[in-house]
Amino acid sequence: MAFGRTIRRKARAAIPLAVFMALIGYFISNAAQGDRGLQGLPQRRLELQQAQAGQENASAEAAVWERRVTGLLSRLDIDALDERARAQLDLSDPNDVIVQYDKGRKLF
Fold first, then answer.
1. Rounded to whole angstroms, how far apart are CA atoms 62 and 58?
2. How far apart are CA 72 and CA 80, in angstroms?
3. 33 DSSP 8-state letter
4. pLDDT of 3 higher than 80
5. Residues 70, 65: Cα–Cα separation, whole Å
6. pLDDT single digits (tens) 64-108
7. CB-based contacts of 34, cutoff 8 Å, min separation 6
8. How many angstroms separate the CA atoms of 18 and 68, rounded?
9. What's the pLDDT score for residue 46?
10. Which residue among 8, 56, 60, 104 is least crowded, i.e. fewest CB within 10 A of its CB?
11. Quick one: pLDDT at residue 57?
12. Which residues does 85 contact at the CB level (< 8 Å), separation at least 6?
């Protein structure tokens, strides 16, 4: 009887330890393997380098376009641009006077 109690008492003490050890084993195995583990680390570093290179390329391209736009603004006639954009898009200002021509008689 006393032997059975001793076994039960030791088993009750060992169950939480076994569960805790299983959890530790689970987390250690996931830390070592998988996409986010130590084995996937070189792949993630490569992806990070590619993303940084893409960001640098995009920044360089944005700088080029910014320089171009700045150059255009210094010598651009806003009224001429507005007139050309309206002609291309077939739009008019509410204050504009519209004179309609026949289809065969176009101004431009």
1. 6
2. 13
3. S
4. no
5. 8
6. 999 888 877 777 777 888 888 888 888 887 887 877 777 777 666
7. 40
8. 68
9. 94
10. 104
11. 96
12. 91
Query: What pLDDT digit, counting tens, does each position of 19-58 carry?
Result: 999 999 999 888 888 778 888 888 899 999 999 999 999 9
Measured distance CA(44)–CA(30) in Å, rounded: 16
Compute the distance between CA of residue 41 and CA of residue 66 in angstroms, rounded to an integer. 37
Provide CB contacts within 8 A for 93, sequence distance 6+.
Answer: 86
CA–CA distance, 14 with 7 (Å, rounded to integer): 10
Q: 39: which 2 tokens?
A: 């084995």
Task: Provide the 10 A C-beta neighbour count for residue 37.
Answer: 13
pTM metric for this prediction? 0.46
Question: What percent of the residues of the chain are helix, what percent strand, and what percent coil, each to the nearest 5?
Answer: 70, 0, 30
